[in-house]
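Regression test case RT-17, inverse folding.

Input:
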């Protein structure tokens, strides 16, 4: 064997792995990044490949993205506010034709998007449920590590940090007792 083939064969014999292959270690080399798509939900408009052209006529690649806006559009037929990411051209078309017509023209199913239900039955149900308090969040006080048993807290010899500092008389600037 001669040349690079000999070196590769020698590397495989020593290490059991070809030096040109990437070895999977079980961990991703970089954190997984999930980016929101920059595509209009109604029209499907997306980025265009273009150039920045300098004075010397050098051309640098750049993307020209659609002017996307996150909007809640009212869908009268579904009686709901639909959350969508739409381009400004689509917003103008919706104002002209209506959301149902634009979605039908572009083959978009509006039931697949997140929404706020505005049906009268739902609003009545919510109004009736206002009397009932919703369950509190477990971390509603902001400190999930606080002592939750009041009897145990009263019997505890520990003091709260702010009370301990004020009783000790610590000076804020120098750190010495006064």
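Golden output:
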């Amino acid at each position: 064997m001669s040349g690079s083939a000999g070196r590769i064969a020698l590397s495989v014999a020593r290490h059991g792995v070809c030096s040109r292959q990437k070895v999977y270690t079980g961990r991703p080399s970089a954190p997984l990044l999930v980016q929101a798509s920059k595509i209009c939900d109604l029209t499907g408009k997306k980025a265009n490949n273009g150039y920045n052209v300098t004075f010397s006529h050098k051309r640098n690649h750049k993307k020209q993205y659609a002017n996307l806006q996150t909007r809640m559009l009212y869908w009268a037929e579904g009686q709901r506010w639909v959350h969508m990411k739409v381009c400004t051209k689509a917003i103008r078309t919706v104002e002209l034709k209506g959301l149902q017509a634009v979605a039908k023209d572009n083959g978009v199913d509006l039931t697949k998007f997140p929404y706020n239900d505005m049906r009268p039955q739902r609003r009545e149900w919510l109004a009736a449920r206002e009397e009932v308090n919703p369950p509190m969040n477990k971390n509603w006080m902001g400190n999930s590590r606080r002592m939750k048993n009041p009897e145990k807290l009263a019997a505890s010899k520990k003091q709260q940090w702010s009370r301990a500092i004020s009783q000790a008389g610590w000076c804020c600037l120098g750190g010495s007792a006064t």
